[in-house]
């Protein structure tokens, strides 16, 4: 049975200066592309979950493309599926409201990405959004996969922003383990209704879409 840590979530110190995002789940609908390559929603989800398990358990960086291929082989899709996913990575689509939300935030905050991906594919995916991010940190660049705190810390250090003046928008509750170690307040964009893993620290807020993100961030100035 999955349970969630009910301890008090980390709160930002007003004003929020930086909003960091998970890329492949919080901003982009990567599930649909994986399902398309697998030619089955059930098999696509099984493949993606196998890959996610590999990245979250990996720690120190191993090539992203290798982990995707290993997960593809594990679920019986063969290495051709991994090659097709690589070829089609630029077909990733943002969640319907993602671009408009980012455009509304850009004049008010620094924006960044922290993603479990290679440099090559991470930047292909980030470019899909058409937004000039202030920082894009991949696991390859940081040398570790999330939820190891190295990636989040590198994003904060690169922009010179303290964690108390930043917010992370997670696509997976596994991010909460890493952001908690950094003192980085986190909103969970739980788009597909997944259960949080056992012992996960509590997020600031859990939302099913990004539609309220701008107002949520604005409201945080009154939470002190």
UniProtKB/TrEMBL annotation:
Concerning Pfam families, the annotation shows: HAD_2
GO molecular function list: hydrolase activity
Which InterPro entries did the record assign? HAD-like_sf, HAD-SF_hydro_IA, HAD_2, HAD_sf, PGP-like_dom2, S-2-haloacid_dehalogenase
State the name under which the record lists this protein: HAD-IA family hydrolase
Q: What are the required cofactors?
A: Mg(2+)
| Keyword line | Hydrolase
Query: What organism is this sequence from?
Result: Pseudomonas petrae
Q: Which domain of life is it from?
A: Bacteria
């Amino acid at each position: 049975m999955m349970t969630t840590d009910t301890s008090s979530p980390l709160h930002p110190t007003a004003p929020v200066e930086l909003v960091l995002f998970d890329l492949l789940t919080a901003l982009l609908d990567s599930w649909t592309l994986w399902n398309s390559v697998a030619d089955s929603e059930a098999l696509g989800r099984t493949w993606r979950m196998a890959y996610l398990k590999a990245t979250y358990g990996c720690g120190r960086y191993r090539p992203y493309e290798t982990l995707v291929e290993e997960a593809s082989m594990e679920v019986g899709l063969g290495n051709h599926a991994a090659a097709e996913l690589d070829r089609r990575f630029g077909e990733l689509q943002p969640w319907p409201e993602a671009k408009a939300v980012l455009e509304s935030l850009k004049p008010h905050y620094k924006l960044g990405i922290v993603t479990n991906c290679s440099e090559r594919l991470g930047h292909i995916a980030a470019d899909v959004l058409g937004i000039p991010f202030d920082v894009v940190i991949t696991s390859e660049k940081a040398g570790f996969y999330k939820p190891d705190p190295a990636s989040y810390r590198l994003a904060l250090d690169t922009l010179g922003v303290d964690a108390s003046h930043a917010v992370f928008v997670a696509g997976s509750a596994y991010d909460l383990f890493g952001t908690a170690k950094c003192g980085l307040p986190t909103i969970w964009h739980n788009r597909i209704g997944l259960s949080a893993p056992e012992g996960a620290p509590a997020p600031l807020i859990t939302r099913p879409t990004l539609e309220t993100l701008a107002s949520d961030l604005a409201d945080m100035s009154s939470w002190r």
